[in-house]
Specification:
This is Hyccin isoform X2. It comes from Echinops telfairi. By secondary structure, the protein is mostly helical. It contains 18 helices and four strands. A hairpin with a 2-residue loop joins strand 3 and strand 4. Helix 11 packs across helix 13.
């Protein structure tokens, strides 16, 4: 650690001690822009023998319990590096070197398991149903789901999973170590959207190192340092995969891909079904090419949503429109005369005389008959477009059909057709 970096950390330690409470929000706002300070703090944490490690851990804990959200997130960004340093020191049997890191991890854990009133928290999570659409899937794309008696009895019911209450811990042991670390990683994943890129990089590196240390893959990855195997739990690996999945789509594709392969490698060796299931699901959902996303841009997980079907037209075929088509005449039209058309309705033209015996031309009678049919079809279509007026239009349509029948009987009478 260089002298300049040490000076930055010492200045940060002294500045917070003399800071009044009224200036805390402004101080927290400006703190995230101090990249040199964040880099120097990472180097302090990575050196277990550093004299600045204990005051740094103490101040990070003061940030966490201050109640200021931005100071809390500032401490959370170092959580992957703190977990790795603690596990590395524990694997090397040098427990005394990790005392301040263990105290910080225990302090954050004991603060997170209780609410502001000091009561134990119970976290709940509602498992989504595949039968209901979401931003990740649509039931129609999965296939037909048979409505069995069991499915109908559970319709509308949601399954809720609860976590907690968690007991307070005074020290970390081999028995409760990963119970505490899994819960801490859960808290870190809940604030992933606020984590900077350097924190996501630290998360991916922590996952790879934990999974390959002490195994043949360590030589392939060229990780130096400890060579002892670090035991992990299945639940802890699932939480690691949750953070890695976010890192894939937020500018850390290469590191996340390497960490995913290492977690899958370790889960296969330890025969953990849950991490294998999650890891294979992530691999199946990843695009073929690397995501070239902007690290400072919008942070999200990209999904494809099936477009919704178009609305049904108001002019769709209904029972009323089918009745209208039954009125269509099937006679062949005369080729010598003009044929008026209304959509698909064709009215043949014939030479007839009126009731009074006056002769009427073929064209005039065809036009008169075409106007009558046009009015009838228009009335049917207007009645068919609006279902609310369907019942009201039935008497009018029957009357129009009766009038048309009388006209046709009178016009087509055998004694009045002119040859």
């Amino acid at each position: 650690m260089f002298t300049s970096e040490k000076g930055v950390v010492e200045e940060w330690l002294s500045e917070f001690k003399t800071l009044p409470e009224t200036s805390l929000p402004n101080y927290a706002t400006n703190l995230k822009d101090k990249n040199a300070l964040v880099s120097s703090l990472y180097k302090v944490i990575q050196e277990p023998q550093s004299e600045l490690l204990e005051p740094v851990c103490h101040q990070l804990f003061e940030f966490y319990r201050s109640g200021e959200k931005r100071l809390l997130r500032f401490t959370l960004q170092f959580l992957p590096e703190l977990i790795w340093c603690y596990l590395a020191v524990s694997a090397s049997r040098n427990v005394h070197s990790s005392g301040c890191i263990e105290a910080l991890l225990l302090g954050v854990y004991n603060l997170e398991i209780v609410d502001k009133e000091g009561h134990s928290k119970v976290l709940s999570f509602t498992i989504p149903s595949l039968s209901k659409p979401s931003v990740y899937h649509e039931p129609s794309s999965i296939g037909s789901m048979a409505l069995t008696e069991s499915a109908l009895s559970q319709h509308g019911l949601s399954r809720v999973v609860y976590s907690g209450p968690h007991p307070q811990r005074e020290m970390l042991t081999a028995q409760n170590r990963f119970e505490v670390l899994t819960f801490l990683l859960l808290c870190y994943n809940a604030a992933l959207t606020y984590m900077p890129s350097v924190s996501l990089q630290s998360l991916c590196q922590m996952c790879s190192r934990i999974c390959v240390c002490g195994y043949p893959r360590q030589h392939i990855r060229q990780y130096k340092g400890i060579s002892s195997r670090i035991p992990v739990s299945s639940e802890f690996m699932v939480q690691m995969l949750t953070g890695i999945y976010f890192a894939f789509y937020n500018g850390e594709w290469d590191l996340a891909q390497k960490a995913l392969d290492d977690i899958t490698y370790r889960a296969q060796l330890d025969l953990y079904p849950e991490p294998l299931l999650v890891a294979n699901a992530i691999k199946a959902s990843l695009p073929h090419g690397a995501m070239k996303s902007n690290k400072e841009g919008t942070r999200c997980i990209q999904v494809e949503i099936t477009p919704t079907s178009s609305r049904i037209s108001r002019n769709a075929v209904t029972s009323m429109s089918i009745r209208g088509h039954r009125w269509k005449r099937h006679e062949q039209p005369d080729n010598n005369n003009d044929t008026p058309e209304l959509g698909n309705l064709v009215i043949p033209e014939i030479s007839v005389t009126s009731v009074a015996g006056e002769r009427t031309g073929n064209g005039e009678k065809g036009r008169a008959l075409g106007e009558i049919d046009a009015q009838l079809v228009q009335g049917v279509q207007e009645a068919a477009t609006d279902p609310r007026t369907e019942s009201k239009g039935l008497p009018e349509i029957r009357r129009q059909r009766s009038v048309r029948k009388l006209l046709e009987d009178g016009i087509n009478s055998p004694g009045r057709v002119q040859f």
